[in-house]
Amino acid sequence: YGVFMDDMTVEDWGAVGVDEVGAGADPIIYSVNKSIHLAVDKYWDNAEIRVLNLTGQTVYAGQMNSTTKVINNLNNLNQGLYLVSLIKDDKTFTTKLILR
After folding, report:
1. CA separation (Å) from 81 to 16, 33, 66, 78, 93?
2. Strand 48-52's sheet: what is its strand order?
3. Fewer CB within 10 Å of terminal CB in the chain, N or C?
């Protein structure tokens, strides 16, 4: 007993039920020496940036004014896990980040 397939075609239809307006590459967000580096698609230009600690407090708020940004003034923050969010229109991108 078996089933065999031949001449199969696979097509990428994207994620079902997900609005892809402004879709592009996901933002790249990482930390180096207690600074946060962001590299984003043009869609995220002028997006709001929020950095939150694990209790939900905003520890940094700013704005993307180009496709790259470095946030340096974080020396008063403890090392640990933070959430970094980009918010523009009705879209939000959030990622976890370990600040060292």
Report:
1. 31, 14, 25, 9, 17
2. 58-63, 48-52, 80-88, 91-99
3. N
* Closest C-alpha among 60, 68, 62 to residue 27: 68
Q: Give the integer Cα–Cα distance in Å for 13 and 45.
A: 27
Contacts for 91 with CB less than 8 Å, ≥ 6 apart: 21, 22
Residues, the chain = 100
Give the tens place of pLDDT for each residue, 54-99: 999 999 999 999 999 999 988 889 999 999 999 999 999 999 999 9
Check residue 4 and give its pLDDT: 65
